[in-house]
Design a protein that fits this description.
By secondary structure, the protein is α/β, with parallel strands linked by helices. It has six helices and seven strands, in the order βαβαβαβαβααββ.
């Protein structure tokens, strides 16, 4: 099996929602994403970001954890409650073990410590977009099958199984201890990174 391309050759096809109550940080993250060719929209609080996420199609979200009106963890919970399931990564200058554990339990794809380098940010963004683009592709295929009414009974069963799997993945709140590995120095790292 060949490894899929991780960096999309058409970054302009992807919109990234950036959420941080610090407008300067939003501008920096937007500039990095723009430089990579991605379209971005910045929001300065969680309520505004949820509204935009419901109105527009985003491939991924990058959010701060510590914000004034609504913290990033609560934002992710409310995003899911509003039926928006796209990959989310957190950036934070105040990363605590509790925030790290809770963010993974809520389904965050990645967490990046501020200050971060452009290379670290671009790697995280490419990972988010790779996941988000595949998620959108599944949704688009399911929609096409359902709208055209061309699905036979076997295809309908597969469609339902995919929907069930998507729901299960989106609603996962905890990981087993086997999801975390320890490197030779004893530092924790998440599985697959």
């Amino acid at each position: 099996m060949t490894r899929p391309a991780l960096i999309d050759p058409n970054p302009q096809d992807h919109r990234i929602l950036i959420v941080d109550d610090d407008q300067d940080i939003c501008e920096i993250m937007s500039a990095y994403a723009d430089h990579l060719g991605y379209d971005t929209l910045s929001c300065y609080d969680g309520d505004e970001a949820i509204k935009k996420a419901r109105e527009l199609r985003f491939t991924a979200v990058v959010s701060d954890i510590v914000m004034n009106k609504m913290n990033g963890l609560e934002f992710l919970k409310r995003l899911h409650k509003n039926g928006v399931f796209i990959p989310v990564a957190f950036v934070s200058g105040y990363l605590t073990p509790d925030n790290l554990i809770l963010s993974t339990r809520l389904g965050a794809v990645d967490v990046l410590m501020k200050p971060f380098s452009p290379i670290e940010f671009s790697g995280m963004l490419h990972k988010l977009v790779a996941i988000g683009a595949r998620y959108h592709k599944i949704n688009d295929l399911l929609y096409a099958l359902e709208i055209k009414g061309e699905a036979n009974p076997n295809q309908l069963q597969v469609i339902q199984e995919i929907k069930d799997l998507k729901r299960q993945i989106s609603m996962l709140r905890t990981f087993e201890s086997s999801d975390f590995l320890t490197d030779p120095t004893g530092a924790a790292s998440t599985f697959g990174s």
